[in-house]
Structures are given as structure tokens and as C-alpha cells.
Design brief:
- With about 190 residues, the protein is mainly alpha-helical.
- The chain has 12 helices and no strands.
- Helix 2 (about 10-25) packs antiparallel against helix 3 (about 30-40), helix 8 (about 120-125) runs antiparallel to helix 9 and helix 10 (about 145-160) packs antiparallel against helix 11.
Length: about 190
């Protein structure tokens, strides 16, 4: 019930429901995660961090609490701490792709070079070749430096998500730059 209330925006009621479950000692890890999310949605970062830390103490081998704490650190612009928790998340679950993608984005910001994210994006795509956000990020990074790879990635994303207007627009612009006006017109027309 607490989860349903959280999704419905009834955060105070959701918090009470979840705290009740915690008091019965059932599903404590999951409840602490959800309480952390609720506090984060309420912009109470201090309480959110407290519950993420409790989750980590209860189940230090589970990846999700580290990922959520990293997201909180990102909101607080504590990039080194965020990277630390993203790496901790990946130590517990090497296939936690969102964590690796965020590490790639942090590298781009840190080094002020879009190519700095490519090793992270390539590693995600090595284990999940249809991860659409990673394909999109890699195509954006490669737009000027490797247009054929960028086009191949955008083609994959269009196959996965054929009505994504951002992807259709990017592909249309790239096709125009490559002189393929027939295909670019078709994409522009779909937008």
C-alpha cells in the first residue's frame, strides 16, 4: 500500500505505511530504500541519506542502495562521492548499467571531453547491445568524430524505439550532413 501511495504522490501516507512495515521487522532493507526515496522526493536530502546509509549497513552486498546514494550525491553536486558510490554499486553488480552510464557522464564532465565517456558506454553495450540510452549517448558523442558509428547507433535506437522524436531528429540531421536527403526527409516527416 505504501508503494502505491508513493506513486500516487501521497508521500506522508506512504511514509507512515512503510514505517509500519519497518516496525514489524519485515522487508527492512526494501522499506529503508523506499523511505529514502520518499524523503528525496520531499527534498529532505539529509533524511534520504540517512535511510540509504541504513540500507547499506543492513545489506552491504546489494547494489541498489549504493546507486540511490550516488544519485543523491549527484543532486548535491558531490561528484567525487557520487563516483565512489557508483563504483561501489558496480562492485556489487557489474551489470548495473545505469551506474556505469552515469560514471561515463561524470568522466565527460570531469575531463570536459565527450570521448571520455566512450569506454563506459562501450562496456555497457558489450553486455547489452540494445541498451537504448547508451546507444543514444554514444551516438551523440560520436556525431562529429565518427559519423558512421553514430548513424549505426541511431539506427539501432530507432529500431528499438521507432517513435522517439529526439532520435529521429538527430538521425535526420546526421543524414542531412551525410548528404542522404531522401532518408533525412523521411525522418523529418515523421517528427
Amino acid at each position: 500500500r505504501g508503494m502505491s501511495r508513493k506513486q500516487g504522490g501521497k508521500l506522508a501516507e506512504a511514509r507512515k505505511d512503510i514505517q509500519h512495515v519497518v516496525s514489524t521487522n519485515n522487508l527492512v532493507y526494501e522499506c529503508y530504500l523506499e523511505l529514502g526515496k520518499i524523503y528525496q522526493l520531499e527534498d529532505n536530502e539529509k533524511e534520504a541519506e540517512k535511510y540509504y546509509d541504513k540500507s547499506i549497513r543492513i545489506a552491504p552486498t546489494k547494489a541498489m542502495a549504493y546507486y540511490l546514494k550516488a544519485n543523491l550525491q549527484l543532486v548535491q553536486k558531490q561528484y567525487k562521492e557520487a563516483a565512489k558510490y557508483l563504483n561501489a554499486c558496480l562492485l556489487r553488480d557489474s551489470l548495473f548499467h545505469d551506474a556505469r552510464i552515469k560514471l561515463g557522464m561524470l568522466e565527460i564532465v570531469k575531463k570536459e571531453q565527450p570521448e571520455a565517456g566512450l569506454p563506459y558506454f562501450n562496456r555497457v553495450l558489450k553486455s547489452d547491445s540494445l541498451q537504448r540510452y547508451t546507444l543514444l549517448f554514444r551516438s551523440i558523442v560520436n556525431l562529429k568524430t565518427d559519423q558512421q558509428q553514430s548513424l549505426a547507433d541511431l539506427n539501432h535506437v530507432v529500431r528499438i524505439s521507432p517513435h522517439n522524436t529526439l532520435v529521429l531528429y538527430l538521425r535526420a540531421v546526421l543524414l542531412t550532413e551525410l548528404g542522404d536527403y531522401r532518408r533525412s526527409f523521411k525522418d523529418f516527416h515523421q517528427i
